[in-house]
Design brief:
The complex is a heterodimer of chains A (250) and B (224).
Chain A: H1 2-15, E1 23-30, H2 34-47, E2 51-58, H3 60-68, E3 75-77, H4 81-89, E4 93-104, E5 106-111, E6 132-135, H5 141-152, H6 156-159, E7 163-166, H7 169-177, E8 183-187, H8 188-191, E9 198-204, E10 210-217, H9 223-233, H10 236-244
Parallel strand pairs in A: 1-2, 1-3, 6-7, 6-8
Antiparallel strand pairs in A: 3-10, 4-10, 5-8, 5-9
Helix pairs in contact in A: 2-10
Chain B: H1 3-6, H2 11-40, H3 46-58, H4 61-72, H5 77-86, H6 94-118, H7 122-130, H8 135-163, H9 167-173, H10 183-192, H11 196-223
Helix pairs in contact in B: 2-6, 2-8, 2-10, 3-6, 4-6, 4-9, 6-8, 6-9, 7-8, 8-11, 10-11
The chains are: A alpha/beta (250), B mainly alpha (224).
């Protein structure tokens, strides 16, 4: 009995939240921002010693859904404009804090290291291309850019049976890198991260510009810090990091 | 009723039932063979081997999914060879979902078959042998029927577990509408996509099926 009580007491101790005086800023960001934002976050923490930045990376649509369900998020950085607009309409994002901080390009990729017959968009119709990885249309922005571009090229309907829809742009990248899909659509910044595994075939046009808006969450209790992070994102030091990862200035 | 409920796609439900049925059948055959082996034969390393087959019960589904991808993906030795020879791959294929579900369902059949075989009265088997029954005939006419209620209870649990498989299936079979999108994937998608009413409906269906299967399983256990 005594041992059982000791055990339960130990469980109670480890279940207490770790205590700290530092402010924690939770940033939900599009999956394509993962590597660049980790570096931006570290730099931001260096200039704001009392703040700890916590990142939550996923597809923009999934992140918005979490925020709508009341997830304790302070800043939201999306890979497209419509997702932010939906959040503003739903009243969960603070429109006055919104800034566009980066742009990107949509690219068609194939697995590197093996001869690919895919030389352009139209080659995707060939029978040897069995699977094409794209982002899930309802929740992953890169999927919608892809849909728009392929509809513009009058290829969407014909290619539809080949699509494998992934949970985020990084999963699309992984499917192609593993060779499980013969082609995929990601952002240029994702493709250049693993040049040994994937090869860019072409930069795809005929879609709305890939713009990244950042906005504070209305329910945030760290509004001043959230604002400071957004200002930092458009400042030269953060823009230099984003540029190094291949993002363009908006 | 909202608009999205009028256009609920039922293919995930049928696919889940199909995947779970095939996976359970595979787990049943393998589970009976292995359960009998570990209940009746002791050999060097048998306890370790049994633990290995029980692993999927405790390992995170991501580990199963990763292992299947590493072993069966196009860049793997086995999966790569198979793909080059035949163009067949378990990745993005509902067979991948079956394999993942069968692996996680196997321990439930194995454990219950093991216990059921251990509980069979050996003197009845000996009596059958004195009546000049072959070992195979003894197994089919005496051992298996006596162990059956326990095995069936475990099989139903395995079916319920296979219905609910998510992590490993998502990694191996992907989430392709009308091809590999099972009930648990459809719930995941509906939730992410703010179609809460659809998610709720699918959750209710899954829960009803699972409760029914668990009640049945309990019935068979009390028969023993």
């Amino acid at each position: 009995m005594k041992r059982l009580l000791c055990f339960l007491f130990a469980v109670l101790l480890i279940s207490l939240p770790s205590f700290s005086w530092a402010q924690v800023l939770t940033v939900s960001a599009a999956a394509s921002l993962t590597d660049a934002f980790k570096e931006v976050g570290a730099k931001f923490e260096a200039t704001h010693p009392d703040v700890t930045v916590r990142f939550n990376f996923a597809a923009s649509g999934v992140l918005l859904q979490q925020i709508r369900q009341g997830a304790p998020v302070d800043v939201f950085a999306s890979a497209d404009e419509p997702t932010v607009s939906r959040g503003i309409e739903a009243g969960v994002l603070d429109v006055s804090t919104r800034r566009d901080f980066a742009t990107n390009a949509l690219v068609l990729i194939v697995p590197a290291g093996q001869a690919s017959s895919v030389k352009s968009l139209t080659d995707l119709s060939m029978p040897e291309v069995r699977r094409i990885a794209i982002g899930k249309i309802p929740t992953v922005p890169v999927g919608r850019y892809t849909q728009e571009a392929l509809e513009g090229a009058k290829l969407w309907t014909a290619l539809e049976p080949k699509f494998v829809q992934a949970d985020s742009v990084r999963q699309v990248l992984d499917y192609v890198a593993r060779g499980e899909a013969e082609a995929g659509f990601v952002y240029r910044t994702d493709a250049v991260l693993i040049p040994n595994d994937v090869r860019i075939v072409e930069v795809v046009s005929r879609h709305a510009p890939v713009t990244y808006p950042v906005v504070a969450v209305s329910a945030s209790r760290e509004h001043a810090t959230a604002k400071a992070f957004i200002d930092y994102l458009v400042s030269p030091p953060a823009q230099a990091i984003l540029k190094r990862y291949g993002f363009s200035q908006s | 009723m909202s608009d999205s409920l009028h256009q609920v796609d039922w293919s995930p439900l049928w696919l889940s039932l199909r995947v779970a049925s095939v996976a359970t059948a595979l787990a049943l055959v393998a589970g009976i063979a292995l359960g009998w082996l570990f209940a009746r034969r002791r050999f060097p390393g048998s306890t370790v081997l049994e633990a290995v087959f029980m692993l999927p019960l405790v390992l995170p589904p991501t580990v199963i999914g990763y292992a299947l991808l590493v072993a069966g993906g196009r860049r793997s030795i086995v999966g790569g060879w198979l793909y080059r020879q035949t163009g067949y791959t378990i990745v993005f294929n509902w067979h991948g979902a079956v394999l993942a579900s069968a692996l996680v369902a196997l321990p439930l059949v194995l454990k219950s078959a093991n216990a059921a075989f251990a509980g069979v009265d050996r003197t009845l088997e000996a009596a059958a042998r004195t009546l000049r029954q072959s070992p195979w005939s003894v197994f089919l006419r005496i051992t298996l029927p006596l162990a059956w209620p326990g095995i069936l209870a475990g099989t139903l649990l395995a079916f319920a577990r296979a219905m609910g498989e998510f992590g490993a299936t998502l990694m191996v079979a992907g989430d392709i509408a009308h091809q590999t999108q099972t009930l648990s994937m459809a719930i995941y998608d509906a939730m992410q996509d703010s179609r809460d009413d659809v998610a709720f409906l699918l959750v209710a269906i899954t829960s009803v099926i699972s409760v029914a299967v668990l009640v049945l399983s309990g019935r068979f256990l009390s028969l023993r």
